[in-house]
Amino acid sequence: MADEVAEPRAVSRETAEHYRWGVDCDGWHLVKDQQLSVIEELMPAAAAEIRHYHRNSQQFFYILTGEAIMEIEGRTVLVRAGSGIRVLPGTRHQIRNSSSAAVRFLVISQPSSRGDRYEE
Questions:
Q1: Lesser CB count within 10 Å: N end or C end of the chain?
Q2: Which tens digits make up the pLDDT trace of 94-106?
Q3: Is 0.85 surpassed by the pTM of this model?
Q4: How far apart, in whole angstroms, are the C-alpha atoms of residue 40 and residue 97?
Q5: Would you say the C-alpha torsion 96, 98, 100, 104 has a positive or negative sign?
Q6: Which has the closest alpha carbon to 58: 7, 13, 107?
């Protein structure tokens, strides 16, 4: 028996599973699969996630609007809208919004980082 193919459909923040994280941050699961995760996140001004790493997952952070500071192994990189940065497994990292405006970005994880997050 052939595998069934899911009916194609467009996904957006309005149709995706929403969750809250950190202090006043929002996320939407655009793709939620064990092998691939695509999340759109909204981080308000002056917010930051906790420094952490993933043993198995690599991630790509792509800034849609605004700008963010990505700290990777103690080194900081300013990432502006229209650009992104890759984080390899085992790499300690933290994204933060030091600006006065919200930042909207995609977090693409392969495989999914669910259950693969370790804080310092």
A1: N
A2: 999 999 999 999 9
A3: yes
A4: 15
A5: negative
A6: 107
